[in-house]
Amino acid sequence: MFQIRTDLAMEVRELYQEEKQQEIPGVAVQQDELKGVTITRVEILDQHGEKVMGKAIGKYITLECVGLRRPDADLKDEVSQLLAKEIRALVNIDKYIKVLVVGLGNNDVTPDALGPKVISKLFVTRHLFKLYNKENDEELAELSAISPGVMGTTGIETGEIIKGIVENVKPDIVLAVDALASRKMERVNTTIQLSTSGIHPGSGVGNKRQALDEKTLGIPVIAIGVPTVVDAATLTNDTIQLVIKAFSKQAKVGSQFYNMLAELKEEEKYHMIKEVLEPYSANVMVTPKEVDEIILNLSHIIANAINIALHPAIDLKDVNRYIH
Hints:
By secondary structure, the protein is α/β, with parallel strands linked by helices.
């Protein structure tokens, strides 16, 4: 059967609602609107919710704003502050904390380059703590960052690299930034998801690897992701649905043509999609043509949010000093 593919918890919940016309047992949902940004909080509470959602127990917070595709300076600042507030709440920051930020993805493939680009804009401080032999600081967190690349270029599983770093650097928490996939084109590059359940590197481009989570690393892992692509098969399936809906409105109820459209099964749609995508091994991802500029803007927003959230002395007055 054709499976709708998405990394967003809010979309999994929407799919369930569309089919069952009810909320998922074991899942709590809350939605707020703040400064033009829709914040959806999905919390998976138990194993039943985990099984239905296909995602680990934990919190999934989504910030959604259409303007993120072409944000002005004010919108960047607004979203950065909102995201920083959510990061602080999840990380549970006290005065002294050691944080490792991991930028997942391939810097040579723009839709997958979000993680590495965020890393390049962070105000890292661990080397300063070591240089001056400081254990803590009231104004700055001890922040280290790494972009480990992808298995295709390093030959090493990303999880193995991060586990080795964690064992040596001994951070209190890991923040992992990666590209995701959405089921709707309208959410591509307009949505930021945070979760407490960790992340599978490469999930956004269909290459799931060893999980980065508390179970594998031994410390909490907060994932920050943006859907930068939509699966072509998912997009095609949605297009077929719209075509059927449009044709059905034009056809006479009870006519042979209408009945043929209405009775078109998922399996039949699946085979149509498979036939079209067969030359590409059915592994085609779609992203907007302005993806270079979009990824640059999103990396600014996320890096600013992390800098503000983790370093008490940094705010919007000087945060852009660390952006290049």
